[in-house]
Amino acid sequence: MAKILVTGGLGFIGSNLVKELRRRGHDVWFCDLMHSSDPKSIRCDVSKYRQVERIFEAHDFDYVYHAAAEYGRWNGEEYYENLWLTNVVGTKNLIRIQEKKKFKMIFFSSAEVYGDYSGVMREDVPEKIHIHLLNDYAITKWVGEMMIKNSAMQFGTETIIVRPFNVYGPGEHYHPFRGFIPKFIYKALHDEPYTVYLGHKRTLEYIDDVCNALANIVDNFKAGEIYNLGGDEQYDIKYISDLILKTLGKDDSLVTYKEAEPFTTRVKTPDSSKAKKDLGFRITVKPEVGIPKTIEWFKTIYGVR
Hints:
The chain has 305 residues and is an alpha/beta fold. The longest helix has 22 residues, at 80-101. It has helices spanning 12-23, 49-58, 73-78, 80-101, 125-128, 136-155, 180-189, 207-216, 237-248, 273-279, 287-302; strands spanning 3-7, 27-32, 41-43, 63-66, 104-108, 120-121, 159-164, 167-168, 194-197, 201-203, 205-206, 226-229, 234-236, 255-258, 269-270. The relative contact order is 0.14. The protein has a 7-stranded parallel β-sheet with strand order 3-2-1-4-5-7-12, sandwiched between helices. A two-stranded parallel ribbon has the order 6-15. The protein is 42% helix and 18% strand. The protein is built from 11 helices and 15 strands.
């Protein structure tokens, strides 16, 4: 059994990861901006060094899953101060303490670090060719990766970097800066209009499959590794919209179709072979099963039937 801290433990991936790690018998604590009634929760803004330091003055952790982040491309443009403070200063704070305490860290980067690259997204691509990063969110995640690598060289810190792609499922509340799946579900449930961009394709990763792989890191920690967590099958975004509407028994009369979304990669093609080999990463829940499960969760949370 390991003693583990999950930063951003009330977030979508963080909250599900806490449950999975606890299910496996680990002693799991988490911190977040919000208060929680959980006895092993700690309120903390990772961008404030004193608040982070207090956690590690009271506890010694074997592993820290650093999931706390300001999420989303347009969120990062409109609230860039929060984005840079949390994603960059917050990560630097964790790294500084890691240099002293020597815990092993798992850093949540993003598929956004592949920017405008349209080929097969292997983990070493960003270091081999010039990539144009398309937004501040992507830039902050890349800065986080570079800080981690520099710390490993200078101080011998041990960190694994994970790059999730399009994770979805129960636990992801809607807000205007979220990804397309919670947006489509929320809008369709409430009979509100939304836009679908044609020709865009994404892999989809159900939250349980992702958390299973993330939790497996404790059993096979290889410092310095980078792992894509993306599926093999690509889905047209219109197909996902149609699947949501079909599940809800609705038509697409409120959907506006446009040809392309600006400043985003039309098709993302990840290579997740390393995560399959080292972390047992597998897609066991297809969208045809995962989307209805997610819709049922949305109906319960938002009281819509």
